[in-house]
Design brief:
293 residues; Lipocalin; single chain; 39% strand; 5 helices; elongated; alpha+beta; 2 domains
Length: 293
């Protein structure tokens, strides 16, 4: 874990009780480029901020009675699928997980996992027992009906979580995992949402290196970011960028005009709530309104 993330975690612990234009438009999900200057693209490279659970495609039931009964049916499976190896899950680095499975036998296997919900993390380690050739189940404690199931389906392991498993703080292990580590939606997000000149100008406007590096830049790298090419209500073409970082008390909205004018409303809990702009004639307290789709 890098130094910046450690500092951010310390910050979060202290406040845990509180709550371009000029670039080719690229649809990140399809990887296609549009050569039309009239094209409007909206890309969201964020993880869910509304729910802790990301259901996998597992066909297993979700009732507690079902899981208790399933776990009681543990048996030796000499022809079980090979679960061993490292498995990666999640489309966003801040809402993801890694699971390592070792020591597989006819009875089951040992596993360890590490999971992210923005700056909150959780880890777990234990032994899962086979109930079918392609399904193994782990019970968190004998006293609680909390489970983690592993269901092999081709090249994918569907992991389903029942209960908190000691995580809390919206950390969740339940999702689909593959052996291949895929690119995250937010990889290189700064350069997808902004040009170098826009970032340089924003850094100059903010002035404070710590505020720029640790909140604007780092927040963009780990946050739920959406951006699209649109226009203001006065008809000026622009790019709109929104960023929200749950667990970090940071959010912002940026409007980047084709003519080089920048409007950034940055909010950092207990530190900053300010509009930054290089438009000396602008008198508004928030960014210019843009056309909603």
């Amino acid at each position: 874990m890098n130094k910046r993330r450690i500092l951010a975690l310390m910050f979060v612990l202290l406040m845990a009780s509180a709550t371009g234009c000029g670039k080719d438009e690229v649809n990140i999900e399809s990887g296609e480029k549009s050569t039309s200057s009239e094209a409007s693209v909206e890309v969201v490279s964020g993880a869910s901020v509304d729910s802790a659970e990301e259901d996998s495609a597992s066909v297993l039931d979700s009732s507690e009675d079902y899981w208790s009964k399933l776990y009681s049916e543990a048996k030796e499976c000499p022809n079980a699928a090979n679960f061993e190896g490292k498995w990666y899950g999640g489309e966003h680095s801040s809402y993801s997980g890694e699971i390592t499975i070792t020591d597989q036998s006819e009875k089951g296997f040992h596993f360890s996992g590490f999971f992210y919900y923005y700056l909150h993390t959780g880890e777990i380690e234990g032994d899962a027992l086979f109930v079918k050739d392609n399904v193994a189940v782990y019970k968190y404690t004998e006293a609680e009906d909390e489970y983690l199931s592993f269901e092999m389906d081709g090249d994918t392991v569907h992991v389903k979580q029942v209960g908190l498993l000691g995580f809390g703080m919206n950390v969740w292990a339940g999702r689909d995992y593959t052996r291949d580590k895929k690119a995250f939606k937010n990889d290189d997000i700064l350069n997808k949402a902004y040009t170098e000149s826009q970032l340089s100008e924003i850094q100059k406007l903010i002035g404070d290196d710590e505020l720029y590096e640790d909140y604007f830049k780092f927040g963009t790298e780990i946050g739920a970011v959406g951006y699209k090419d649109t226009e203001t209500k006065s008809g000026e073409k622009c790019r709109l960028v929104d960023c929200l970082v749950p667990t970090y008390g940071t959010e912002y909205t940026a409007v980047l005009m084709d003519n080089g004018k920048i409007y950034l409303k940055l909010k950092v809990y207990g530190t900053c709530d300010k509009l930054y702009t290089n438009d000396s004639a602008y008198t508004g307290e928030d960014v210019p309104e843009t056309v909603s789709e």
